[in-house]
Amino acid sequence: MSAHVRSGLKDKVALVTGGSRGIGRAIAERLGRDGAVVAVAFARDQAAADEVVETIGKDGGRAFAIQTELGRHGDAAALWSAFDSQIGQHLSRAGVDIIVNNAGIGRSADLATLTEEGFDEVFAVNVRAPFFIVQQGLKRLRDGGRIINISSGAARLAMPEIIAYGSTKGALDTFTLNLAKQLGPRGITVNSVAPGIVDTDVNAGWLRGNAEAQAHAASLAALGRIGQPEDIADIVAFLASDDARWVTGRVIDATGGAGL
Length: 260
Prior knowledge:
Blueprint: E1 13-16, H1 22-33, E2 37-42, H2 46-58, E3 62-67, H3 75-87, E4 96-101, H4 116-137, E5 141-150, H5 163-183, E6 189-195, H6 201-207, H7 211-219, H8 229-240, E7 251-254
Parallel strand pairs: 1-2, 1-4, 2-3, 4-5, 5-6, 6-7
Helix pairs in contact: 1-2, 1-8, 3-4, 4-5
């Protein structure tokens, strides 16, 4: 094993949805460095997913890409079918130890302009998909496993301009709470991680190259800077590790202290 790889998650299997870019990519790469075999789930960009797999491999880890577009009926079944068909190529045992529900639609319209179709889409990807990924993943998830849902600071801060998005993340946090209670007897921990503004491709259009927007975004955090994908990935890595075995049912604020 490469010297770059930590052994804390050796031979654990992690599924990361939305793992081909941004926060998801940082999470996948970090879990790979920590020793996990990582299933990098993606919707459309095969080249980006392959790049993540290659990066993890160069760091001494193991990973594979699975394509499933979320937000459609049957998406969870398709995702797990793709997972099942590949995991045997990397480990002699089936199953999963860590599920990271990261994929999501990042923004939505305000109350006045949001369409029914837009509402349905953001809830289908951000809420329904994680719900059924977990439902159908439970028979694969080993006792002592981890479920980590990527929420948002928008679930606790009033942001009317993205009201539906914030509502989906509130629903995801409620999902986390109930799962933690239900799965506790199996030693499975369930937590949410709630980022604030993070410098990713999703925010590039209004953030990158705009000094005024960057200064404003940084000013919202008590720590005085814009979040980076690695800031979130490191928190997820902690929650995935044995060090977080006594933490469950919590929303971990990862906004750098926004709105304090």
